[in-house]
């Protein structure tokens, strides 16, 4: 399991971020294949990065998410630990290497991305579905 490095304090402990709504841990990667042939690989905690850290995905990814319905996107899910064979992709996104650009995405983008990631979780029943964290008052 991988923990978000932005959620770890300088002492190496998990920092308390009650404002975060998505899980800060990952168990693997997702590949999204859009009808135009674009393939993007990302950690399965991509919703955490977008919603909780205001990560700004590459423009090509934003356009694809806004252009295609979730049902038309093919998904692949795999565990990254011990992965020997590389998967063919166009772009790896959302990894904590190099720049981590931040900015605002539209609410429409967020809604559509959630639908696509939920579809990936449904396509792979063994995948832990991305869940909103429970707030202290029981509301998500």
Provide a compact summary of the structure:
This protein has 140 residues and is an alpha+beta fold. The chain contains three helices and six strands.
Can you offer a commentary on this structure?
It comes from Candidatus Collierbacteria bacterium GW2011_GWC2_44_18. InterPro entries: DUF7919. This is DUF7919 domain-containing protein. Residues 1-65 form the DUF7919 domain. The chain is of the alpha+beta class and 140 residues long. It has one domain (2-123). 24% of the residues lie in helices and 15% in strands. The chain contains three helices and six strands; from the N terminus they run ββββααββα. The protein has helices at 46-53, 59-67, 107-123, and strands at residues 2-3, 25-26, 29-33, 39-43, 74-78, 91-92. The strands form two sheets. Strands 5-3-4-6 form a four-stranded mixed sheet, with helices on one face. Strands 1-2 form a two-stranded antiparallel ribbon. A hairpin with a 5-residue loop joins β3 (29-33) and β4. The longest helix has 17 residues, at 107-123. The radius of gyration is 15 Å and the shape is globular. The chain starts with a strand and ends in a 17-residue tail after the last helix.
Summary tags:
single chain; 140 residues; 4-stranded mixed β-sheet; two-stranded antiparallel sheet; 6 strands; disordered C terminus; DUF7919; DUF7919 domain-containing protein
Mean pLDDT: 79
Which regions contain 5 or more consecutive residues with pLDDT less than 50?
Answer: 135-140
> Beta fraction of the residues?
15-25%
| Distinct helical segment count | 3
| Gross morphology | globular
The share of residues in helices is: 10-25%
- What Rg do the Cα atoms give? 15 Å
As for the number of domains, it is 1
Sheet/helix structural class: alpha+beta
End-to-end distance = 23 Å
Secondary structure: number of strands:
6
Run of helices and strands: EEEEHHEEH
Please identify the oligomeric state.
single chain
The largest beta-sheet arranges its strands as 5-3-4-6
Largest sheet: 4 strands, mixed
InterPro entries: DUF7919
Organism: Candidatus Collierbacteria bacterium GW2011_GWC2_44_18
Protein name: DUF7919 domain-containing protein
Pfam families: DUF7919
